[in-house]
Amino acid sequence: MAYLCSETFILFIISIFSSICLSFSTPFILLHGIGQSCNDAATTFYTSQLSLLSKSNGYCLEIGNGAFDSTSMPLENQVQIACEKVKGMNELQQGYNLVGLSQGNMVARGLIEFCDGAPPVKNFISIGGPNAGVAVCTGGAWCAEAGGVGIYSDYVQAHYAPSGYTKLPKDIAGYLKGCRYLPKLNNEIPNATNPIYKQRFTSLKNLVLIMFENDSVINPKESSWFGFYQDGTYSQILPPQQTNLYVEDTFGLQTLDKAGKVKFIKLPGIHLGMDIQEMQQYVVPYLIE
User: Fold this and answer.
1) Which residues span the domain enclosing 227?
2) Which residues lie below 8 Å from residue 224, measured CB to CB, with a gap of 6+?
3) Residue 4 domain-assigned?
4) Which of 32, 110, 150, 252 stands the most exposed, by the fewest C-beta atoms within 10 Å?
């Protein structure tokens, strides 16, 4: 009888300890892609599965009405909304991890670099992100309109979110002058760099960059690793380590990489086509304390 009581007591202590460990696990925020919402099946799948596998609390952070605003709201505005939401979440005050899906990575990186007074981001897992930009206009009717007034016009930049990370290799001057979001995020605007952006980005514990081998959405797909076309051409794609962003270390990519904190992961399959086994192997380790 004494043995049973002792065994019961030990199990009780273990259960208490386990619940304490779970309550102090680092939560994560997930940011979905363009044309999606937190209620979409794909977004729900990622949020619920990663939370289940990591045993940590996961939250999909919605901006505006989701699908429409993810397309039409300028990214700097999306980041401002996300920033205020993150600062208002008590669950995140001791720090959190970030998971970005496709365009959501643009907002996620903005949270890291631009959000003043926010809780610290520990690990940033980028899944199929257009991190170095996209080299062609995507969006059907919007691209036709941009063809008339220019992707870097004030009107398009104010009404079409992907224009904020469209980087035309044959118009780098126009990109640096007219693109409102990515040049600032990359800290590459001449005479307008901000060392705080680099300081915040290099404070990450890990930067996980996941590229899909058959990705036909991100052009070039190497942008998910911060690789991109060489300026002036659509024929040569530079690996991340040979780009100006890396060589000049404008926002800290080289610093993180040389510290062994950048994980370059290539997966077979299409855009965002991860299965549960791949999530377990490549994402979950960075969501667990």
Assistant:
1) 28-134+193-286
2) 126, 128, 129, 130, 131, 209, 210, 211, 212, 215, 218
3) no
4) 150
